Amino acid sequence: MSTFWSIWISVIVLGTVFGCWWLLYATRKNQTSDTETDRTMGHSFDGIEEYDNPLPKWWFYLFLATCIFALGYLALYPGLGNYKGLLGWSSTGQWETEMQQADEKYGELYAKFGDTPVPELAEIEDAMRMGQRLFANNCATCHGSAGRGSLGFPNLTDDDWLYGGDPDSILTTLHQGRNGNMPAMGTMPNMTNEQVDQVVNYVLSFSDRERDAEAAEKGEEVYAQACVACHGPDAKGNQALGAPNLTDDTWLYGSTYDWIRETVVNGRQNQMPAQGGRLSDDQIQILAAYVYSLSN
């Protein structure tokens, strides 16, 4: 945060606290009596008059105590721009402390399964219960609570894997993450609209869904120039590159003409964040076994 905004926030916060204090003091000072009277403010609304009576003492002192508490809190904790507070507390530090306590408390439980091979681990009920919780906390946001994915997020319960569904591939994906990149127009950036239509029809022809058989026939040549480098001459994909199989019924971004055309024209970028550094090696081993079990 810049110095200007730090000062700006501090002035607003302290101005609010001292402003409330001054308002209480000024209001109290102008009152001539601490007891209730029949004196009114001279206002009358539909026959109802407003009395000029002081706040009850307990209420007044409670307001003052609130102001004092606010100043004490701001002295101890961050709340005035870049000022860190006398206690040096931060949400990041609190999180790190809690994570350290959790590691000390549960680390032995994870370590018990850390050296077990993934296929064997997938057969251990206690480990899978732990894996399900790890999945729910770290993966379900994208892949869904049941691991069935959604538009742009792979289904983990089938046998179609962009980067491979064997234990080593799953572990690599979890540790290092994945960066998917489908370039617009593939390797043919000067593709015309007519050629886009042709290659889309060609891809649809793999499942007998082409709109225009003549366009699909011409699209084979466009595919050879723009797509074959990644998806292969047989369009079966390439797991080393994360290029999907175009001949099956599994589509990450939709399989209609319009969806495929949008993919060809605009490309696709997707990222699977690395869990290494966020989770321990033992936790990743258990999580990998749980993911492996979803499709096995």
UniProtKB/TrEMBL annotation:
Per its UniProt record, the required cofactor names are: heme c
Listed GO molecular functions? electron transfer activity; heme binding; iron ion binding; oxidoreductase activity
* Keyword Nucleotide-binding in record: no
Q: Which Gene3D superfamilies does the record cross-reference, listed alphabetically?
A: 6.10.280.130, Cytochrome c-like domain (1.10.760.10)
- List the InterPro entries hit by this protein, alphabetically: CcoP_N, CcoP_N_sf, Cyt_c-like_dom, Cyt_c-like_dom_sf, Cyt_C_IC, Cyt_c_oxidase_cbb3_su3, Cytochrome_c_Oxidase_Subunit
Q: Which organism is it from?
A: Marinobacter vulgaris
Subcellular localization = Cell inner membrane
Query: Which pathway does it take part in?
Result: Energy metabolism; oxidative phosphorylation
Q: Which residues cross the membrane?
A: 7-25, 58-77
Q: Which family does it belong to?
A: Belongs to the CcoP / FixP family.
This protein's GO CC annotations: plasma membrane
Quick one: which residues bind heme c 2?
A: M182, C227, C230, H231
Instruction: State the gene name recorded for this protein.
Output: ccoP
Description of how the protein assembles with itself and partners: Component of the cbb3-type cytochrome c oxidase.
- Output the GO biological process annotations, alphabetical, semicolon-separated: oxidative phosphorylation; proton transmembrane transport
Q: What does this protein do?
A: C-type cytochrome. Part of the cbb3-type cytochrome c oxidase complex.
* Chief location of this protein within or outside the cell: membrane
The alphabetized UniProt keywords are:
Cell inner membrane, Cell membrane, Electron transport, Heme, Hydrogen ion transport, Ion transport, Iron, Membrane, Metal-binding, Oxidoreductase, Repeat, Respiratory chain, Transmembrane, Transmembrane helix, Transport
User: What does the UniProt cofactor note say?
Assistant: Binds 2 heme C groups per subunit.
* Cytochrome c domain location: 126-207, 214-295
Q: What is this protein called?
A: Cbb3-type cytochrome c oxidase subunit
Q: Which residues bind heme c 1?
A: C139, C142, H143, M272
Tagged with keyword Oxidoreductase: yes
